[in-house]
């Protein structure tokens, strides 16, 4: 509000004051939570790297740069993250493309498999690869029985197995991010191109592809930032030479309790992540991340050298694709359907994406352990799991923490979403960036910072501490979901209710909330699922005894690989599948009403 | 500029059980301006997409300039399409948008540039070449879409409600522009609109569609004054539709009795041959109805004046017929003075020339 518009009457001023107060109250809980459990602990961890017991010191940094070990680990981390990003985006692109152009029913089917992969625990999926690639695993056994090899291959604990696990873990994220941009590409544009004389290859490369680039860029940065802070896959599927930077932080905290050094590594990691973001912003502009706003490259006048080179490359790509397509006989009656080769490729990838977790199901019922093929039929692993107090306590704790996180994140995230969508306040962009910062700061840094803080105020091992930590990382998703819902919500309904005599609270209760219910439910589920699969924070903050399900899973997997884990994996997988199904039903019901 | 004829033969499209377009045939001579008119969901876009090759038909054939193109992809049909939402490429400048079809045809860069400038000249927007589509107003974008379509001189241009999003004033301007371009280039145009007036003023012929079928195809005047079905009579403009029975037929001239024995009259048969005893609907346009005070007793119908409406140049009288079974009647004449001579509740009689009454055979199913 500018000075010229300030109300002059006392009533007007009072009303304006009330409005400001209201806004502050809406934003306060989330801001306080993030300040207390994100900014403070992370800041403290970073300061620990220069502020030792005896005052200011640079010793941790000297240690960091003294040995080539850490530098090499950083290089490996970057290398793994880079290739993971590259492969996830390239392989994910055709899947996202096919989903975006599919008819509604087909789209729902394809999307289900992507979502199933997306929500299936990283742990379950990494564990599945251990079983598949192991010496007596699916691949080796199949090749041996076919006589292709006579001794099992060493498929695990190397760069390739790490890459397989990483790409498998992050490709759903890449697909979903690209999809959100592709869904907004006007479908009549490629059609228009074809009436103007463009062959399919040219229409794709010169029209569709440039328009989808913001999605590719957003996917790339999301995957890269997630990959660089990853430790589950390299720890379970990599060898010594695939150690990533976050694993070093875990070692420092869990084994040597060297907080100063853990802080120094965190600073290094954070600096690298920030550099990547700065680079991204320079090239594309951060606003493309949320899918809103045109990419900066497109708004520049296209006279630059880079633009012309890009144009020539796309023209050539289009030409080449058209020549290749021309080699195949044209199917007469199938205008508008994606080519068969593309569909089969995509379905192949989708099967590969879901297969590992699905393979757990037969193994969990086999009496022969985790060797392929499964032998016999037994429920003993499920019985062991149900009889084990450790697993059952972990389940209870995960459910409690998950529900607590879901409720808390929804309660404090929704008002902020309202504020960001509805009100005309200054510093909206800054507020949004602040709210989204838990996604950008590598999870490991938050986790270690929280651990240090919790240890001193006695929150380690408590459900309450975990709920706070998980809410910090889940709340950005709640805000983003609710913002999307609110943008589609017709505010005239509120005005209509108010004109019919409803006061603001009554309007909220009788009109707004019932309509937004489905959106709130899905953001609750989002937060719940985030907490339910969260390992990094739980790894430290759940303490030794009060493990959550992922923590328990992690402890078991790193100690010994037992068929009980296959049973647990199957349960988790089925649980997630049901959850997605229910969420989809809810969404459809709300769309129908 | 070459322009091609278009022939559509038994073309049909189904989505599952639903018939979006029943087998439809259509002949458009080169250079004609044909408008597809009809209610929402009547299959206009479907027909256009089949002609353009954006969808494939379940049966039937499309011929452009005599060549069968039924299964040719859009990019080999040499036609132009103006999409309802313009479909300008947002990542290209206006110039690049317009030059795109030329590039696809391997026209050299210099010539493409020159021709794009020429096309911009034609739609009177030479100054926007370097802008992006989102930097133009709706009407300007519309004209660019037209320019992009004209620049490669396709032999047929398809336009799907191209003026749908424009305000009245801009719409009328653009209508004139399109007509001018059609005159200058003599290209064949298939034009879709919801707007009757637009259809009447612009077209050589109108193809009125309903429920996936052609209801009637003909010159605008034919459709208006000689509708063949009740649907056409009702859809185009206001009309009095009176149920009646044929008592005698001599050639096209019929003697009829109006429903409820309200009166007898003569009418011209439209379309089907009608014999005595046939049930028909008689259509009389409001402006052909003459209204008099009931004292003379020579009119064809009597009615009580229910409402008077002055719509600027026209005054409309709405009357409740005395006889049962007749709908409300309407008469219209040029507004002559501020106050009309008739009062609400007056008993009036209605009359019309035999040649202005059109008898339409009652068909089942509409
Ligand atoms: N992809 C589709 N799947 C199923 N039905 C469709 C599809 N496309 C169109 N239809 C149906 O076919 C019928 C004809 O649609 P069409 O788009 O041709 O109508 P239209 O005359 O262009 O209508 P409007 O004036 O509203 O644009 C409609 O009932 C529509 O619901
Ligand atoms: Mg249409």
Automatic annotation (TrEMBL), chain A:
Q: Where are the transmembrane segments?
A: 24-49, 69-98, 110-135, 155-181, 216-237, 257-280, 340-365, 399-421, 433-455, 461-486, 507-529, 564-583
Please name one Pfam family that this protein belongs to: BPD_transp_1
Location in the cell reads: Cell membrane
Q: A single Gene Ontology molecular function, please?
A: ATP binding
| Keyword check for RNA-binding | no
One Gene Ontology cellular component annotation held by this UniProt entry: plasma membrane
Q: Which domain of life is it from?
A: Bacteria
Q: Which InterPro entries match?
A: MetI-like, MetI-like_sf
**Assigned keywords, A-Z:** ATP-binding, Cell membrane, Membrane, Nucleotide-binding, Transmembrane, Transmembrane helix, Transport
Its membrane topology = Multi-pass membrane protein
Query: Has keyword Magnesium?
Result: no
> Where does this protein chiefly localize?
membrane
Family designation: Belongs to the binding-protein-dependent transport system permease family. CysTW subfamily.
What protein am I looking at? Answer: Spermidine/putrescine ABC transporter ATP-binding protein
Organism field: Azorhizobium oxalatiphilum
Q: Read off the lineage from the record.
A: Bacteria, Pseudomonadati, Pseudomonadota, Alphaproteobacteria, Hyphomicrobiales
TrEMBL record, chain B:
* Enzyme class, broadest EC rank: translocase
Kindly state which keywords UniProt assigns to this record, in alphabetical order: ATP-binding, Cell membrane, Membrane, Nucleotide-binding, Translocase, Transport
> Which SUPFAM superfamilies does the entry mention?
MOP-like (SSF50331), P-loop containing nucleoside triphosphate hydrolases (SSF52540)
Asked if the keyword Cell membrane belongs to this entry, the reply reads yes
Does Phosphoprotein count among this protein's keywords? no
Reaction(s) catalysed by this chain, per the record, are: ATP + H2O + polyamine-[polyamine-binding protein]Side 1 = ADP + phosphate + polyamineSide 2 + [polyamine-binding protein]Side 1
Question: Per the UniProt record, which EC number(s) apply here?
Answer: 7.6.2.11
**Superkingdom classification of source:** Bacteria
Name one cellular component (GO) term.
Answer: ATP-binding cassette (ABC) transporter complex
UniProt domain ABC transporter: residue ranges? 6-236
Q: GO terms for biological process?
A: putrescine transport
Molecular function terms in GO for this entry? Answer: ABC-type polyamine transporter activity; ATP binding; ATP hydrolysis activity
This protein's assembly is summarised as: The complex is composed of two ATP-binding proteins (PotA), two transmembrane proteins (PotB and PotC) and a solute-binding protein (PotD).
What is the documented function of this protein?
Answer: Part of the ABC transporter complex PotABCD involved in spermidine/putrescine import. Responsible for energy coupling to the transport system.
Q: Which NCBIfam families match?
A: potA
Instruction: Give the record's family classification.
Output: Belongs to the ABC transporter superfamily. Spermidine/putrescine importer (TC 3.A.1.11.1) family.
The name this protein carries in UniProt is: Spermidine/putrescine import ATP-binding protein PotA
The organism of origin for this protein: Azorhizobium oxalatiphilum
Q: From which lineage does this chain's organism come?
A: Bacteria, Pseudomonadati, Pseudomonadota, Alphaproteobacteria, Hyphomicrobiales
What gene is it encoded by?
potA
